[in-house]
């Protein structure tokens, strides 16, 4: 893809844009406006835009030692174009441990995180009611 996307910090002004992307990314399992607002009121978000159009986002929490990724979504027609990597790489630059959970059956997501040096550290049986188990993943920076 030949483009220069812009990354931005997300806040409550971006709820509508995030909600639209969330619905496209997660379908019936998307977070609603209240959940997104609650997250951004207490945690953080990164957005990615191209020509002022939102094309991706990442929602996370952060403290002094670690980061936890809650949601990441890229518009369907731009998946596998490197945009998710841009967002993950921004977090990796913070040189903190990064935790996340992924549905055991979501092979594209699992492959994406493996490519970014996340490793499996555990499972939660029955976490996802629609399909079963989640896998807990961890990224440890080389300097940690």
Fraction of residues in H or I helices = 25-40%
Largest sheet: 7 strands, mixed
Number of helices: 4
- Fraction of residues in β-strands: 35-45%
Q: Cα-atom Rg, whole angstroms?
A: 15 Å
Strand order of the largest sheet: 1-2-3-4-5-7-6
How many strand units?
7
Quote the CATH topology. Aminopeptidase
- The CATH homologous superfamily is termed Gcn5-related N-acetyltransferase (GNAT)
Query: N-to-C SSE series?
Result: EHHEEEHEHEE
Secondary structure class reads: alpha+beta
State the low-pLDDT regions, or none. Answer: none
Question: How many structural domains in the coordinates?
Answer: 1
Distance between the termini: 33 Å
* Rough outline: globular
CATH class membership:
Alpha Beta
What is the CATH-assigned architecture? 3-Layer(aba) Sandwich
Q: pLDDT average, as an integer?
A: 89
Q: How would you sum up this structure in a few lines?
A:
Helix content is 28%, strand content 38%.
Kindly describe this structure.
The protein has 144 residues and is of the alpha+beta class. It is built from four helices and seven strands. It has helices at residues 15-26, 33-42, 83-92, 107-115; strands at 6-9, 44-50, 53-62, 66-74, 97-103, 119-128, 132-139. Strands 1-2-3-4-5-7-6 form a seven-stranded mixed sheet, with helices on both faces. β2 (44-50) and β3 (53-62) form a beta hairpin. The protein is globular. The N and C termini lie far apart (33 Å).
Properties at a glance:
144 residues; alpha+beta; Aminopeptidase; 7-stranded mixed beta sheet; 4 helices; 7 strands
